[in-house]
Amino acid sequence: MKKLLYISLTTILLVACKNEKTSNSDTAPEASKVETKKTPLQESIARGKSVYSKNCAQCHLPTGNGIPNSYPPLRKSDWLTKKRKESIHAVKYGLSGEITVNGKTYDNVMTPMGLSDQEVADVLNYAMNMWGNKQEKMVSSEEVSQVEK
């Protein structure tokens, strides 16, 4: 009988403790509920990752390495990070003709993808801040809208 009483009490205590933890999490101080707020650049990069996966990864690969002799790398790309306006133009309107990336010449066609100015900004913020690239100034949709064909 003592064993049964002990088991019953232990079960009740365990259930009560579990319920207490659950109810406490609902009334926990705000500091424990606060998610880390993302900066506008971090939010743009997150959106850009999705745009990149759907539109760019086929040629430039998920790693940003590109395809040798066909599609230039975006990883540690001097062209991408030093030719900002040209990069915006290429993503917005497409690109054909020779370009030199990291000392190697590429001559292929990048077709326009029909992205909105915001999508162009987001995907560039993603690519310009991944794979060893780093840009201090965020690309904005306003900046993209000013680049004309």
Question: Any overview of this molecule?
Answer:
This protein has 149 residues and is mostly helical. Helices cover 54% and strands 9% of the residues. Strands 1-2 form a two-stranded antiparallel sheet. Strand 1 (95-101) and strand 2 form a beta hairpin. Helix 3 packs across helix 7. The longest helix is centred in the N-terminal third of the chain and has 25 residues, at 2-26.
**CA distance, first residue to last residue:** 87 Å
Order of helices and strands: HHHHHHEEHH
Structure class: mainly alpha
Question: What is the total tally of β strands?
Answer: 2
DSSP helical segment count: 8
Features:
mainly alpha; single chain
Topology, pairings included?
Blueprint: H1 2-26, H2 30-33, H3 40-55, H4 57-60, H5 78-82, H6 84-93, E1 95-101, E2 104-110, H7 117-127, H8 141-145
Antiparallel strand pairs: 1-2
Quick description:
The protein is mainly alpha-helical.
